[in-house]
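Practice problem: Thaumatin-like protein
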Amino acid sequence: MASLGGLSFLLLPLLFVVSHAATFDIVNQCSFTVWAAAVPGGGRQLDPSQTWSINVNPGTTGGRVWARTDCSFDGSGSGSCQTGDCGGLLECQGYGTPPNTLAEFALNQFQNMDFIDISLVDGFNVPMDFSPTSGDCRGIRCSADINGQCPAELRAPGGCNNPCTVFKTDEYCCTSGSCGPTNYSMFFKNNCPDAYSYPKDDATSTFTCPGGTNYRVVFCP
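Answer key — structure tokens:
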């Protein structure tokens, strides 16, 4: 009984380490104002060099962080954004409207690992870096000038659309689950090799960190 009690006591610090909330520091290094958005988390205006920190509960899945651009909100937090708009709300309750560069995450999943990625499946609006600030794992980055090089048919005000948004076909949207790379997805992949370029781009685009890692998402790194 004594040794069992001792083992339980020794396990308590470990359980605390893997189950506390993860801190996400969201940093605007762009030369212009962005309206950061997070699900879960809400949203906030970030002028250049400003940081917004949020805590995300362990076990969270479907998490996203993104930048909204060219927004206007009234005193009640209602308005609109040119890219990344989330239902006209400053405090996002749901995902944003393409095109928007996404930091995606699921925390404390298989074998207590965090799964993270940068996704261009909803297109691109601002460059992004998504990196750990603790833990033993690598960061990911998409810093290319995708807006400046965007194919004409994918161009959108303030960003570059993914072809699924424009053409809405199975070839680009993978609605049948059997699609592969296309010329358009390769444009995104060649510019940002770490990022998802189409929905089935898992092998080169999903990264893991130990559960309990904290992160920084930087716009315009």
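Discussion: Helices lie at 2-19, 146-149, 163-167, 170-173, 183-191. Students who identified this feature from the tokens alone can consider the problem solved.
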